[in-house]
Amino acid sequence: MKETGAIAGASVAHSRATVDEIESAGGDGVRATVSDLLARDGVEEAFALQTCNRSEAFVVTDRTVDGTDALASFAPEVRGGAVRRLDHEESLEHLMRVASGLESLVLGEDQIIGQLREAYEESKSAGGIGPVLKDAVTKALHVGERARNETSINEGVVSLGSAAVRLAATEIDLTGGSAVVVGAGEMGTLAARTLDDTAVSEIVVANRTVPNAEFVASEIDTPAEAVPLADLPAIVPDADLVISATGSSEPVIEPRHVADAGRLVCVDIAQPRDVDPAVADREGLSLYDIDALEDVTRRTRESREAEAREVEAIIDEELDRILRAYKRKRADDAISAMYAGADRVKAREVDRALSKLESQGDLTEAQRETVEDMADALVGQLLAAPTSSLRDAAGEDDWETIRTALRLFNPEFDAPPETPGGESTGEGSAPDLDGPPESIAEELDD
Q1: CA 318/CA 328 separation, integer angstroms
Q2: Helices 305-359 and 294-303, axial angle in degrees (round to 10)
Q3: pTM value?
């Protein structure tokens, strides 16, 4: 019998890990991570989430030990204390907290919803999404939407881009200044929009694809210019603030770019890093990365504690709902398999009993129904107590009782065996010395 699988997870996130450790855990991307996990023993489903704040992986296996083993080598170069291991219930709750923004560096950030959806689609494209993870991630997204619609968790500073601007404002006076936003993706766009609400006089958007930079520049009211990344050596020295958020695998801002700069603040919110750490050696230059934004976001976090408690109440409600459904499903799977096995035995024995009775004289339709009703009643009464016990066990998270019951009742003991070619022989399995008799009717005749 195939049980409903359980989720196991592993998380490397900003609360425990450094930027470098998160980057290391990310590997070669979501699809590569999912494909690698699916190749491991016992893994039926896999999902990965990678953002600038976290690198996480989740698998579904029938046995808990298989999930633990499959994730044992996740983030192999990251110190043990930076990796959080999650069981089934913890994984479900964690995904809801992530989608709600409770696990984000900036409490309540909105972009995590889009990142979670994108990770889901990528994992699905890699063949990693099945019924268990589909329910888990869909529920998490639903909770994330509820959190934002029913509370004010996302009011105020809700992105790394806006946090970067807030941090820069503590270092320099942005009034009349020039800001460069490197990257025209979601993070860069949010940074540009936040800068648009400040007193900067000019915003330059640099991107590998210039039309994308032009689109971002057109979205803001502050005078803005779109340039290619190749122009960075010319525009960075004249800037007061640089916020970088590209998806480049290599640094896009190097020491040579800031050699002629005056007072300059660089905030690197990219993962992997956009700014070579060596630029911090330049006198008059302040370099901040994601880790440094913690101080900026702490004030927002404190102001949203009441909203966070409301979100946690939503999570408790939704977690209880999905866990009840999951437990019912696991119990129902076991019960269905038990009844399927019993029904096969019943059908076989009723046919044999009717055949023997027919040989002793014609049977009326009413007599046939009586025999069949008796067989149905026997199956129902014999399995009533185990059914109740299995449902109670599922409600108490007692999966060992479910497995033990399946071994004892062995619902597939009489399933037709397969030939070496994979086809059924059409005959029942031969009993072992401790197994049930070939025919209960035959046993009664002896």
Answers
A1: 15
A2: 80
A3: 0.64
Give the pLDDT confidence score for residue 368 in this predicted structure. Answer: 84
Domain ranges of the chain: 6-155, 160-300, 323-445
What CATH number belongs to 6-155?
Answer: 3.30.460.30
Q: Give pLDDT tens digits for 8-39.
A: 999 999 888 888 888 889 878 899 999 999 99
184 is in an annotated binding site: yes
User: Is residue 110 part of an annotated ligand binding site?
Assistant: yes
Exposure pattern of 401-437 as b/e (b: 16+ CB <10 Å)?
bbeebbeebbbeebeeeeeeeeeeeeebeeeeeeeee
Query: What pLDDT, on the 0 to 100 scale, is given for residue 405?
Result: 66
CATH H-level superfamily of 160-300: NAD(P)-binding Rossmann-like Domain (3.40.50.720)
Burial of 320 (0-12, 13-18, 19+ CB in 10 A): exposed
276 is in an annotated binding site: no
Eight-state DSSP code of residue 227: E
Active-site annotation holds for 266? no
Strand, coil or helix: what is 104? coil
Q: In angstroms, rounded to a whole number, what is the distance separating the alpha carbons of residues 409 and 398?
A: 17
Please tell me whether 53 is known to bind a ligand.
yes
Q: What is the pLDDT of residues 374-430, one digit of tens each?
A: 888 888 888 888 888 777 877 776 766 766 766 666 555 455 554 444 444 443 333
Per annotation, catalytic residue among 8, 10, 52, 59 = 52
Of 303 and 419, which is predicted with more confidence?
303
Tell whether the torsion through CA atoms of 166, 168, 173 and 179 is positive or negative: negative
